[in-house]
Each structure stands twice: as C-alpha cells, then as structure tokens.
Amino acid sequence: MASFKTIPNIPQALLETLDSLHFHTMTPIQEEAINPVLDGRDIIAQSKTGSGKTLAFGLPVVMRTDTSRYTPQSLIITPTRELAEQIAGMLRNIAVSKPNLKIVTLYGGVPLRAQADSLAKGAHILIGTPGRIQDHLSKETLSLEGIETLVLDEADRMLDMGFYDEIVKIGSKIPDSRQTLLFSATFPPKIETLAHTLLKRPLHIKADTIQERTKIEELLYETEHKNRTLITLIQAYKPKSLLIFCNTKVQVMKLAEYLHEKGHCVTEIHGDLDQRERNESVTLFANGSRRIMVATDVASRGLDIEGIELVINYDIPFDQEIYTHRIGRTGRADATGRAITLYTSKESEKSAYILQKTERAQLEALRADSRFRMQSDYDTLCLNGGKKTKLRKGDILGTLCKEIGIENTLIGKIDITDSKSYVALHHTVTDKVLKALKKVKIKKKKYLAWIVD
Q1: Does position 212 have pLDDT exceeding 60, yes or no?
Q2: pLDDT mean across residues, the chain
Q3: Residue 154 contacts residue 185 (beta carbons within 8 Å)
Q4: Which domains does the chain have, with CATH numbers?
Q5: Is this structure's pTM higher than 0.70?
C-alpha cells in the first residue's frame, strides 16, 4: 500500500498530523481516489463500509480549502446526524495543521437559529443532512454560490431514505462548475440516475467492495425466547463491547431497560433522542463506560467505533443491504468480529437471505457463565467547556495527573466537542476528581463537572 507521502504537494505538517493519527499508508479506496479528486475529477466511488472513504474525500477537501476566503467552499451531504458528526470530527482532526479552517454541521435535532448564526459568521466546509440543508436554503440562511466541491457520502442510504429530490434541488443551487464526488457502498439503479443528473464525465472507482467473510464470523440462532437467548449469548461469548440492533425505537427502549435490570451497563440510540443525548450515548459506548449499545438502524451507518467485538441482530433487518451495514460495525480495519442474528420459526422465510450465507448455530452447544455481567469499570466525567474555550486533551490530562494526582492508567478516552469535554475515569477515582475540580482550575479557569448518567 502506498504512503501518503506519494500524494503530490501534500504539506509536511499534514503528513505529520496523519502520522500522529496513525494513518501511515493508504487504503485501496484512498489510493485510487485521492489524486483524481485533487485533480478536480468528478468521481463515482463504490467501496464497502469501513474502507476509509471519509479520508478519501476529506483529505483533498481540507488540502484544497482556501482559509483566506471565509465562504463555504465544500458541501458534504450525509444521511444521518451521526455520520455528519463523525465526518466533521475526522476533518477537524486532520485540519489541525491548517489554522482558522472552520467546519459547520447542519442537521436536525438542534435549533436552526444557532446553525444560522454560525453560518453568518462564515465557514469553509459544510457537513449536513439533506433535510436540514434544504431548510436553510428555503429560509435563505445559507448560500451555496461559492461551493466548489459537492460530496455525497453514503448516497445509497440517502436514496433509501427518500432524499433523491432534496439532493437534486440542493445540487441545482450549486454552480455547474463544481466538482461532484459520489461515494456509495452499493450501486442500485437510482444511484445511476442520480449520478447522471449531478456528475460530469465521472471516473468510476471500485475498491474494497466485498466485505471479507473471514473477518466476520456470521452465526444464526433460532429461538422462541429472544430475551432469554440474548442473555445466554452474552454470558457465553463474554464480549468486551456489544452492539444490538432492533427494528423499532420502542423495542430498543424495552430491551435496554431489560438489560439494565439484568445488571448490564447499557446505553441506547434511536430517533426520539435529541442530538445531545445521541452524541453522549455514542461517547459512553465508545469510551467503555457503557459496554452495550442497543440501537435502531440510525447506527447501522455512520457509527465508526473501534473494537466492537460482537453485533447481534435482535430483530431481522428489513433487507440484505441493512444487514450488511449492521454487521459491518464489527471487524473494521484490521480487526475481526462476530455477528449473530436471532430468528423465530415463524421468521424462516423473512431470514432466507441470511440463512443462505450464514452458519446455523445451536444454543445447546454454548457454555454460559451465569455470573457474567457486562459491567464497566469506568464513569464518564463531563466538563462544561470544550474547543470554544480552547480546552485541549493535554490540558485536561495534565490537570488530572499533576494537579489532582490521578494515575494515567486510571484515565480513559478523552473526547472534546465544541462546548463540552468527556473524560472516562476509573470509578475508584471519580469522587476524588469531582471533589477536586470544585477548587482546581484548568488553564486558570474553573469548570463545572458532573457524571453523565
């Protein structure tokens, strides 16, 4: 695999940033797409989930941004809020060597006015969902006249969600001279129609399109008692992290409550949660404070969390594409994983597409440890300050270790958003830190601190 050093005119500071983020060599989709994108080509790229698509378009977008012009130059459209936030996080990480580059996210669940205020102050890169972008256009709080690059990420998913008309309308507001990049895991007929409408003489790229079967062990269990079977699976496989998919938000809430009552550390994500709740749920799961996440398909794409050992389909997915994206949450990058689907005897026909490719397993063959619970040794501390108050991970880590006397090994992942910072702390030091932060300052400023429930 080629090194990022082979990219023409890539700044040394950006190479050092990529190295610090452990991006040393390019994935196949990055190797095939980055240079043509930098050359200004329109692209249709098909690549499986977890193949590095975000960096394939994100790196050129950052490199080509002119920060001396405070006007939107790139628009990235995504199907979900979670994916918008993850892309924004990736781009912010690689853009640290490019001062004053401003990224604004546009999606529902947060006030339109707050986003309009951010847009009014100027931005370089916009990342958002079709509906909210259309809202801003209709209220004239957003102009796309300066957009030079339009990116459609997870285009197949957006079309599945019925956003074809919105995407075309948004495209009509952008100059014809723009570059358009379309990234998709699958290539249904509607994608061809969309591509024909929006792209000019595109370069077609196919890389990493097949999920490696050897990386993900797929199993199928027949049961008439899903809750009981789920507990048996947890106690037999003992995963460090578990993602469970249900088809409805009602089932997600019921199952999360059931698992909590059984003594497991669990969080949930579904459409009824507001954006703060959804972000915090992802943070708690990613940093290990909650070892189980129960989710609707809002998490089947856009959830890029390292180390998910096991995915369980509590409910059979509505179609094969959703199944592929669900199980793709495990076995990412160089890791391996396991995906289990539960079905009842009445669902044999519904699960036929899974039965054809998946090994049937027997519950009787499992050896369950009835004492095992997926509990966590960590709490998540939240501080009422983040990037906007110039807080950095090093500032927080230094205060915890040097000022409060916490051992580095008792501090887990630190996540910093615009207005808040989240720190995973071993439960044995949580009270000490909370008490100390009532007096101790971070960068000469006091911050409120609390534990996220």
Answers
A1: no
A2: 90
A3: yes
A4: 4-206 (3.40.50.300), 216-365 (3.40.50.300), 378-451 (3.30.70.330)
A5: no
